Amino acid sequence: MNIMVAEYAVGAGEGGTILLEGKAMLNVLVNSFTKAGHRVIYPTTGPVIPHGTGVKTDDLKKTIAELASRSDAALVIAPDELLSELTQIVEDNTINLGCPSGSVTLCADKLLTSKILAEGAIKVPVTATCENQDIFSPDECVVVKPRWGCASEDTTLTVYGKLSHIPDGFVATQYIQGEHLSVSLVAGDNILPLSVNRQNIKISSSIQYDGNMVGMDSGRNPEVIKVAQRSAMLLGCRGYVGVDIVLADEPWVVDVNPRPTTSIIGIDRVIKVELGELILKARFGGLPECVDLTGEFFFTKVDLHL
Predict the structure, then answer these.
(1) Structural domains in the chain plus CATH codes
(2) How much is the average pLDDT of 241-251?
(3) How far is CA 246 from the centre of its chain?
């Protein structure tokens, strides 16, 4: 099968840590699809990676459309605010291996995501915008982050009384104290849990993600996985999905990522089957009910430089 994998940072010429994360995720997927016997192409503005075929681009949207039309299936990784449009381009030209563009649009909107999950009996933090910002007490801690998008650099922690207003395009959410986890899933006719991961989160006035412990046992994995699976189902997710959870009295869902996340870097080290093949089975059938991992794997952003 001919498969296109488009990773935004690599294809758009981004720099810094974003590019390092993008290259690492792209490398995992290209290698995995290739090991499973498929041919892979991907758009790039820089050096090619081992395996697969890199295609130089100066217009990412146009290149995605062209490469998708020459492929049997395709997968896009991009920031949440861009992912829906790029996914729609894929859907117009070939079989999409990721979440449907409509599901991506829902997940990108943190306010709408919270509403849908809450209506489905999932625990989510109370969320406010500039239009209803007087729902918190002055001494309550809140997380302020973009309503659309996934940039942790723009996420801050503050006492609500010190917040003069919620900026346009941002939301303030109830701060939940607990263990920061994510659940990696592959969703098809059934929703396959891959791993529970402990997120390395640095919290001060800002909240920064710095890697994962993949494949760990929280002591409450079945409970956490069940909530993650239901969240993915409520939002209509397909393919690879990452669900961010704070584990406190109950699992609280704080974000749903309808795309491959950096957790795949660790999962690739400990999973006994090819991740690419699981993504294909999610779309075409035959997805197993469970997979085995060989252990745990820890990485930070610094490790991406190595």
Answers:
(1) 2-97 (3.40.50.11770), 106-110+177-305 (3.30.470.20), 126-174 (no CATH)
(2) 98
(3) 16
Residue 40 clears pLDDT 90, i.e. is over it: yes
Residue with tokens 């991406």: 304
CB count in 10 Å sphere of residue 161: 12
Pairwise CA distance, residues 208 & 155, whole Å: 8
- The greatest distance separating any two alpha carbons of the chain, rounded to the nearest whole angstrom, comes to 58
- How far apart (Å, rounded) are the C-alpha atoms in residues 60 and 44? 8
Q: List alpha helices for the chain, DSSP H.
A: 8-12, 16-35, 60-69, 80-93, 101-108, 110-119, 221-234, 263-270, 275-284
Rounded CA-CA distance 122/120 in Å is 6
SS3 assignment, position 165: coil
Residue appearing with tokens 């820089």: 46
**Do the bridges between strand 95-96 and strand 73-77 make them parallel or antiparallel, or are there none, so unpaired?**
parallel
Which pTM does this prediction carry? 0.95
Asked if 64 and 52 count as a contact pair (C-beta separation under 8 A), the reply is no
